[in-house]
Amino acid sequence: MKISSGRVLVTGASRGIGRAVVAQLVARGARVAAVGRDEEALMQVARTSSRQVTAVVGDLARESERELLVGHAAEALGGLDGLIHCAGVVKYEPVGTLTPQALEAMWRVNQLAPTLLSQEAARIMVEQGHGGSIVTVSSTLSTRPAPSTVGYAGTKAALEATTRGLAKELSARAIRVNAVAPGVVDTDMVRQPRVAPGTRAPEGAERERLVAEQLEALAYLHPLGRLGTAEEVAELIVQVLDAEWMTGSVVTLDGGLSL
Ligand SMILES: NC(=O)c1ccc[n+]([C@@H]2O[C@H](COP(=O)([O-])OP(=O)(O)OC[C@H]3O[C@@H](n4cnc5c(N)ncnc54)[C@H](OP(=O)(O)O)[C@@H]3O)[C@@H](O)[C@H]2O)c1
Predict the structure, then answer these.
(1) Would you please indicate which residues are annotated as catalytic (active-site) residues?
(2) Is the pTM value of this prediction over 0.90?
């Protein structure tokens, strides 16, 4: 049986890439625990899935909520075959104004949470005795940081190292661990106006215009001339989830951005 038609926990399932991953898994017949903070958005994801999706509301940045999530999900699904960590936080700040609070907020969700969720998921998979698969979502910024991404790039580089470390340790238990590293993907994450430190972001039509300009400039950086879509990234994540001879890999999907 392919993992993508088994029992899979997906974080970041309320929006963007995670939500697109849930749709792909549902189409393959999986049962999915969809994790996020936005209950209404998760319920909407669950409503469109003919009872295959269970919404699991929780804040990955809070220890008290995070430590219960995997157990709840496995209970709701009757076990766990796969974990896909899509949740992520970015705070664009030049190094001069980067605060410890911003660094910690990114670290909690981008690095600490996937490490501890993987630990718990692996414990359950080992108990079940037939292996499993974990996919994390990194970024091309882990190796090629852009201005104002010092903190975020650091969390993603650490996540890649963690992914490789987990792959090495868990291979003896037939648990594979891989990462997908996208270039810029058109989701809410990049639809934030970027303004100089100390400057207020504009509102309304002016905000829309600024975001559109920024997206166009970002698209231009990709040799293939456009941003990625959540669906394209989700498709690769699901392929990696199922790839039976792959572990410890970081697979790039970036329209040529890294060239
Ligand atoms: N978009 C890009 O250009 C891009 C490029 C490279 C890598 N990535 C990575 O791809 C992944 C998905 O990004 P995206 O573009 O889909 O972002 P997005 O649209 O902003 O979605 C982020 C997701 O993370 C969840 N999340 C954030 N903080 C959370 C918390 N404290 N607890 C629980 N869930 C939390 C959000 O859920 P709630 O709001 O419901 O909590 C949401 O579902 C991230 O890891 C990101 O770093 C994105």
Answers:
(1) 152
(2) yes
In contact, 84 and 10? CB cutoff 8 Å = yes
CB within 8 Å of 9: residues ≥ 6 apart: 32, 33, 35, 56, 69, 70, 73, 74, 77, 80, 82, 83, 84, 117, 121
83 plus 207 within the same structural domain? no
Contact of 229 with 186, CB cutoff 8 Å? yes
Is the same domain home to 151 and 221?
A: no
Same domain (yes/no): 119, 153: yes
pLDDT for position 49: 83
Q: Which residue among 32, 185, 222 is best mutated to probe the pocket of ligand 1, counting the most ligand atoms within 8 A of its Cβ? A: 185
Condensed to tens digits (0 to 9), the pLDDT of residues 238-251 reads: 999 999 999 999 99
Count of domains for the chain = 2
201, 73: one domain: no
CATH number, position 242: 3.40.50.720
Which range of residues forms the domain containing residue 22? 3-183+229-253
Clarify whether residues 139 and 213 are in a common domain.
no
Mean pLDDT calculated for residue range 127-154:
97
Give the residue whose CA is nearest to atom 46 of ligand 1: 88
240 C-alpha to center of ligand 1: Å? 19
Residues 94 and 220 in one domain: no
In a domain, 258, yes or no: no
As for ligand 1, residues whose beta carbon falls within 6 Å of it are 11-12, 14-18, 36-38, 41, 59-61, 86-89, 109, 137, 139, 182, 184-185, 187-190
- The tens digit of pLDDT for each residue in 64-92 reads 999 999 999 999 999 999 999 999 999 99
Ligand 1: which of 189, 240, 253 to mutate, most ligand atoms within 8 Å of CB? 189
End-to-end Cα distance, the chain: 37
- What span, in angstroms and rounded, lies between the C-alpha atoms of 38 and 197? 29
